[in-house]
Amino acid sequence: MASMALQLLGFFLGLLGFTGTIVATLLPHWRSRAHVDGNIITATGYMKGLWMECVWRSTGIYQCELYRSLLALPPDLQAARALMVISCLTSVLASLVSVTGMKCTRFARGSLIKSPLVLSGGICFLCAGLLCLVTVSWTTNEVIENFYNPLIHSGMKYEIGLAVYLGYASACLSLAGGMVLCWSSSGDRSRQSPPHMQRGQSSHLPPVFNNLHPPAPPYRPPEALKGNHAPSLCSASSSGYRLNNYV
Fold first, then answer.
1. Does 77 map to a domain?
2. Where is the protein situated, by its record's location annotation (predicted)?
């Protein structure tokens, strides 16, 4: 029961991390910048994401525009896109593999393949969390460098958006879920003894037990026993000697 509870806990943690990774990938709040004129009513917010950039005005107007050209994007944005998409796909694979290997499911119930499946799902969740963590850390470093760069105009400087913080939380949840699944799988494998060890215990007995039943003597035919008996009276008389000659 404890192992099943650990598997459920790890799976739901990884599922929450997967959901947060998808939301963070789609949101445009990776970089944000606010511009306020002399009148507070004309405040404008600029946001950039992996797929679009948006403009928000204090009058209630919210406009977004998708990036039209993939090749025109900077290399760091292209790499961030690829890493986040791979992280989402890895989380999908981890969810499917973990569900099939959990004890609460009927797939391969009672089989030894359950524990390796849970371990594989945990490793996939760990890989997905690492990919998401690398992406948001890279974006954070770039935003901070550009913000403190004196060569960049203040109107072109952005700050860290909410999607980056969501990516950090999602990466931590995916890593935690993967570690819990791997831990539960290692506990199950330690409790199971391999079947070949049980079969081999009866064949490899100590020498003391092998000497309890000594081997039987070899079979000898009757012809080999003819010369082993003592001579009788009949045999003595047939050889030319009589018993009356010695009495």
1. yes
2. Cell junction, Tight junction; Cell membrane
Q: What is the DSSP letter of 223?
A: G
Predicted confidence band of residue 244 (pLDDT cuts 50, 70, 90): very low
* Residue 92 located in a structural domain: yes
Q: Structure tokens of 197?
A: 């060890």
Cα–Cα distance, 150 to 153 (Å, whole number): 7
The strand ranges marked E within the chain are 31-35, 44-48, 52-57, 62-66, 159-160
Q: Quote the CA–CA distance of 158 and 21 in Å, as a whole number.
A: 22
CA–CA gap between residue 138 and residue 147 (Å, rounded): 14
Number of domains in the chain: 1
**Residue 92 belongs to a domain with what CATH number?**
1.20.140.150
Question: Scanning the structure block, which residue is given the tokens 């499911």?
Answer: 105
Residue 165 domain boundaries: 1-28+73-190
Question: Per-residue pLDDT tens for 64-77?
Answer: 999 988 888 889 89
C-alpha 144/C-alpha 161 separation (Å) is 12
**H helix or E strand, kind and range, residue 135:** helix 114-147
102 in Cβ contact with 7 (< 8 Å): yes
pLDDT in tens, 34-44: 665 555 555 78
Residue whose token pair is 């890895």 = 90
